[in-house]
Design goal:
The protein is an alpha+beta fold. Helices cover 28% and strands 14% of the residues. The protein has three helices and three strands; from the N terminus they run H-E-H-H-E-E. Strands 1-3-2 form a three-stranded antiparallel β-sheet. Helix 1 (8-20) packs across helix 2 (30-37).
Amino acid sequence: MDDDEFHPRMQWALLTAFLAEQSDDQLLTFCDIERLGRGALPSSKQYPAFWSNSSQYAKHWVRAGFKASRARCLPDQVRFLRTSGSRSAPVAARVPQ
């Protein structure tokens, strides 16, 4: 597997694991998410519908106990709001620097 090759399943699994480990809301830039997922987000990331909690991608943050919001965010940011008190899966995942 090439490092620069896009692997959507792995990318979303890494985001889910990262969020599942967080106890508080998370404000992430698109770059943060791409570093975490080790790949580029689709170009549709710029549209609000992409981050809708009913989109095809929502299951990944909902599974981790979050909903997404673009309210009061910069154009390249998304806020993940904790919706459940328990974390779904304790997995060591951090946003790479």
